[in-house]
Amino acid sequence: MGDERGRGRPVEQQVRAGAGGCVRRPAGNGEVDIAYLRPRPREGTPIVFLPGGPGLASALPYRALRRRAVKRGLDVIMMEHRGVGASRRDITGADLAIEAVTGEAAADDLAAVLDATGVERAVVYGSSYGTYLAQLFAVRHPGRVAGMVLDSPMLSAVDDVATVRAFRRDLLWKGPGRAAALFRELLDAEQVPVPEASHVVQVVYEFAGPEVLERLLAARLAGRALRTWRRVAELGAGEIEGPGTRFVMEPDLVAGITHGELGYGEAPDGLPLDPQELFSHHAADRPPFTGERVDLPAALPHFAWPTAVVSGERDLRTPRPIAERIVELVPGAVLVPLPDLGHSAMDTHQLAALNVAHVLAAGGLGRLPDLTPRIAALPRRGASGKLGPVIRAALALELALPGGRQGSPSSRGRGDRHRRGG
Prior knowledge:
Elements: H1 11-19, E1 20-27, E2 30-37, E3 47-50, H2 63-71, E4 76-79, H3 103-116, E5 122-127, H4 129-140, E6 145-151, H5 159-172, H6 178-189, H7 194-208, H8 210-221, H9 226-233, H10 255-261, H11 277-280, H12 296-299, E7 307-312, H13 320-329, E8 334-338, H14 345-348, H15 350-361, H16 368-376, H17 387-400
Parallel strand pairs: 3-4, 3-5, 5-6, 6-7, 7-8
Antiparallel strand pairs: 1-2, 2-4
C-alpha cells in the first residue's frame, strides 16, 4: 500500500489501487464489500477516523485530511460506511437494503476492517454521527480501542434533542443578546417562515459568527441582503433527502440509522430553532424511531481508555453541554474546548483534529488542556471551514451595493452537512 493516487478515477478504483482494500461482510440476505483506505501503514497505533452524517462518505471528501495525516507521520484508516460511496452496493451490484444498513453492522464492519489490516487496537476518532458509531464500536468491541476522540459528540437520541433545543433557544431566541432580539423581531414581523429563519440563524451563527448574524438579521428586517439570505436558506437541501451526491453525501440508504436509531425527524414541538424540524418533512416515508440500541450514558463509565472530547464554542448541533456530560461520565476524559468554532473540527479545523488525535495516540492525554490554546490557534483547514468567510464576504458585498441587492427570499432549501448530529 502506498500514497493515494489517481484522484480522477472512480473511488472504487482508488481503493483497489494500493491505498486500501475491501473486506466482505454479510448484508441482509447477501454480502457487501466494505471499502477502506490506509494510505501509509506504519509502526505504532493507527488512528481510525469516522465522519459524520449518517451518509457522509470517507474516501472522497477526506483526501486532504489523509494527506495531512500522512505528512505528520500518522497511520490513518478510514472505512467507507456501508450504504455509502464505495460500500453502497452488494456484491451483485444492487443497492443495499435499508434494513441491512444499521449502526451495529457498521460497528462490526470496522472490527472486520481492523482484522483485515492486521490491527489489534486503534485510536478511534469520531465526528458528529461518527461519535455515535465510535461509542457503539467501543461497546461491542472494547478490546479493540486504544483511545478515543469524540469530536462534537452525540450521546442520547432522546436526551440530546431536549439539550439542543434549550441551548439554541436560550442563546438565540430567548436570550438578552442583540442577535436574539433581532431574531424575535423578525419572527414577530412574520416576514420569513419560522423553519427557514431558524435554519439561516443556525448556519450563520455557527459558520460566520454572531456579529455576521446580527448584520444579516438587521439587513433582512430592513428588506436588504435578500440574495445572501436566500443562498444560506438553500444550503444543504440535497443532504437530508434523496440520493444526495454520489461518493460525498448519500442519505437514502442510511435512513434506518438516521430515523430508526437516532430519531431524526420525530415530531417537532412547533417552536423556533427545533433540530427536528428539517427531518420531520421527510419522516413519513422513513423507518420509524424504534428506540436507542444502546444506553450510552450507562456504558460510558466503563470506557477504560484515554478519551478526549472536542467541542466547538459555536456548535449548535451538538452543543457544549453534551460534551461536558460525556466528560463527566467517562473516567479521566479531557475536554478540548475550541473557541470561535462551530460543529466538527474534523470538517472545519482539520489541523486541530489531527493534533488532538496525535497527542492522544502518543500518550499525551494529560497534556491536552495546556496544549488546547496552541491547537485552537492553528490555521483553519477543511472544506466546511470555508463557508463562514464566504457568507461574510457575500453579505459585505451585497450591503455595499445600492439597495443591498434586493431580491425575493426563498423558503424551499434548508439543511447543512451533518444536520442535528452529523
